[in-house]
Specification:
By secondary structure, the protein is of the alpha/beta class. It is built from 19 helices and eleven strands. Among the domains are: 99-181 and 334-500, P-loop containing nucleotide triphosphate hydrolases (Rossmann fold, 3-Layer(aba) Sandwich); 199-301, no CATH class. It has an eleven-stranded mixed beta sheet. Helix 7 (208-231) crosses helix 11 (290-307) and helix 9 (267-275) packs antiparallel against helix 11 (290-307). The radius of gyration is 33 Å and the shape is elongated. The structure holds adenosine-5'-diphosphate (ADP) and magnesium ion. The site of magnesium ion (MG) has 2 residues, from helix 5. Adenosine-5'-diphosphate (ADP) binds at residues 135, 137-143, 475-476, 491, 493, 498, 501-504. Keywords: Plasmid. Residues 1-10 have a biased composition (Basic residues). This is ATP-binding protein.
Length: 511
């Protein structure tokens, strides 16, 4: 782009003799040129633009007339440099694959979301299909997720909602002919977070090597969960506790005794094993006597005991009564009745249990089994403790990646940072957590969050403005960050989807 300057030569023009035309020149040689017939004038009514308007506008009140044109700045730069000044001018756009979400407001074209397809396409800078969605409550995070789930069904994707704290996925599940699974105080549903999951199936038929591999995966998941659960009760989980829990789990399943089948384990069983330890366990954990074992493991026992009492009693302490039907388009685990008790710690712990259980359920899946695994309002879990952040991090990191799209929704980026002091280890892990997703959808936010967003996501001021201004004007508007590309997208809902995603009943009784 370059500005060109033209110089007026008006002064010299008058001094020159009248110039000769081509006709004058040819007449000197006694010849003439054939003339092209002038086209017949079009009647004014048929003209497409009967009046032309000069660039300075129409000289009339209210018609935008300007006596002089504003001076235009000229720049010269390469096409590589232009995105610095115009960061939101996107390139070719994304290919028309996957869920049709709405439109890209800069190009006017349709906007499609296909995280797995993006990963497979080398020209799109995305290396994992996970998506983090941020937005102020009510801006349309859940609605975007629901629309995505519905629209991915035709591409063979099924959804798993790990903890629906407001029961807002129930309408969608019922519409798809699936009965949501409810867990809560007094409800009959049970989930055992220490479920073996599909890795425990056909155990006897596996080779010793395969059994070893599977056992490591299962024990690691359980350890991570128990660590998170214990730490959320304010109990330190040191390498000593880790050793004790590792031993207990291996004893209880029969793994240390070389059992051909792993026995089912529950949290009360782990607690009971600590409360009346066998001699083997005491010596294995290198305690001198039973009394020394009791003294050493008291905080651990008390923390585990608390999980089997109070508001969580009868939810996560026996064998699972829920058998997910993976052929159905959606599986949702509702937690509203627990959420309504107002016990925030209990909700966080319940989400942690469901996340771990869900990870176990996805550790093995048949080829072509594609799933969208959702953790809505994940901050309810991660604000509990550093270990809770680590547990989510491990669930996301270790989940089977081929075929699964992990979706996580948050209010604001600092939600994962709320566990522990800023700048601390928790904040670092939380930042790493964000790096687990190459796709981030930033929906409307208040000004106060803008700086924080900018810092964490590397946004320019203009991009921050998109979130705090443009995205706040309509629901479903968001800045989509796909790798290092940015898109300004408006998600559109069909009338049916608007009904299925409606979440404002409580504050809008008129509808
Ligand atoms: N793109 C959209 N178009 C129209 N309405 C929308 C859109 N996105 C969300 N809504 C409506 O806005 C309300 C709040 O959306 P919701 O997804 O529950 O917000 P969040 O999860 O961010 O708190 C819902 O009633 C939903 O139907
Ligand atoms: Mg929501």
């Amino acid at each position: 782009m370059a500005a060109t300057k033209t110089r007026s030569r008006g002064g010299a023009k008058n001094a020159r003799p009248a110039s000769r035309t081509i006709d004058d020149l040819l007449a000197d040689f006694g010849t003439t040129m054939p003339r092209k017939e002038a086209p017949a004038p079009t009647p004014p009514a048929e003209k497409l633009f009967p009046h032309t308007v000069k660039s300075s506008g129409v000289r009339r009140m209210g018609h935008g007339w300007s006596p002089t044109m504003p001076p235009l700045a000229g720049y010269q730069m390469t096409s590589e440099e232009t995105p610095v000044l115009w960061p939101l001018i996107s390139g070719d756009g994304l290919p028309p694959w996957g869920a049709e979400m709405g439109y890209d407001v800069l190009s006017g074209g349709k906007f499609y979301c296909d995280p797995m397809g993006w990963v497979l396409d080398d020209s799109i800078p995305v290396t994992n299909p996970n998506i983090f969605i941020f937005g102020k409550p009510g801006r349309g995070k859940s609605a975007t997720v629901k629309a995505f789930m519905i629209r991915m069904i035709k591409f063979g994707y099924r959804s798993l909602v790990l903890g629906d704290v407001k029961d807002e996925y129930e309408d969608l599940a019922n519409f798809l002919g699936v009965t949501p699974f409810r867990i809560g105080p007094g409800l009959p549903g049970r989930i055992n977070p220490l479920d073996l999951g599909p890795l425990g199936a056909d155990w006897e038929k596996q080779t010793a090597e395969e059994q070893e591999k599977r056992a490591t995966v299962i024990f690691n998941r359980w350890l991570m969960l128990i660590r998170g659960l214990v730490a959320s009760q304010g109990v330190v989980f040191s390498p000593t506790e880790e050793r004790v829990i590792n031993k207990v789990l291996r004893h209880l399943t029969g793994w240390s005794a070389g059992a051909s089948r792993l026995k089912p384990v529950t949290i009360p069983l782990v607690w009971a094993a600590l409360d009346s330890p066998t001699k083997d366990l005491v010596t294995d954990c290198r305690y001198e006597s039973e009394q020394a074992f009791f003294n050493g493991t008291r905080p651990l026992r008390d923390a585990l005991g608390a999980l089997c009492e109070g508001s969580l009693q009868g939810m996560f302490d026996t064998e699972s009564t829920f058998e997910p039907d993976w052929r159905k388009p959606i599986q949702t685990l509702s937690l509203r009745s627990l959420h309504e008790t107002g016990n925030k710690v209990a909700v966080g712990i319940a989400l942690m249990c469901l996340n771990s259980w869900g990870q176990g359920m996805r550790e093995a899946a048949s080829a072509g089994d594609r799933r969208i695994v959702l953790r809505d309002e994940a901050w309810l879990q991660t604000r509990l403790s550093l270990e809770a952040v680590e547990a989510l991090d491990a669930n996301l990191r270790l989940s089977r990646t081929e075929g699964d799209i992990q979706l996580v929704t948050y209010h604001k980026p600092s939600d994962p940072l709320s566990a522990g002091d800023q700048g601390s280890q928790a904040a670092q892990i939380a930042k790493d957590l964000l790096n687990l997703s190459d796709v981030r959808i930033l929906m409307g936010q208040d000004e106060s969050v803008a700086d924080e967003l900018g810092r964490l996501m590397g946004l320019s001021e203009m991009q921050q403005g998109v979130i705090t201004n443009w995205a706040m004007q309509e629901k479903g508007r968001a800045l989509w960050m796909v790798g290092d590309q940015r898109y300004k997208v408006q998600t559109l809902l069909t009338p049916l989807e608007k009904r299925l995603t409606y979440t404002n009943e409580a504050i809008d009784p008129g509808v």
